[in-house]
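ok, trying the design again with the full structure, not the truncated one.
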């Protein structure tokens, strides 16, 4: 879950003129980062070798 202060700071960091899509993209990125940090904190990560194995079909 996002914290209001983080959302407000992210919006304030946008240029004076921005599109609705820019704002949504910024908030989605912030949310994905928050999810990743929680996963990392909970030990829900992969080793480098595990990640390479999972990504191998796209990295050929």
């Amino acid at each position: 879950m996002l914290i209001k202060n983080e959302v407000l700071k992210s919006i304030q960091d946008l240029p004076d003129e921005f599109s609705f899509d820019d704002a949504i993209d910024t908030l989605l990125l912030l949310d994905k980062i928050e999810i990743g940090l929680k996963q990392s904190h909970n030990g829900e990560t992969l080793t480098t070798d595990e990640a390479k194995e999972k990504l191998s079909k796209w990295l050929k």
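Keeping the full-length input from now on. The first helix runs from residue 4 to 12.
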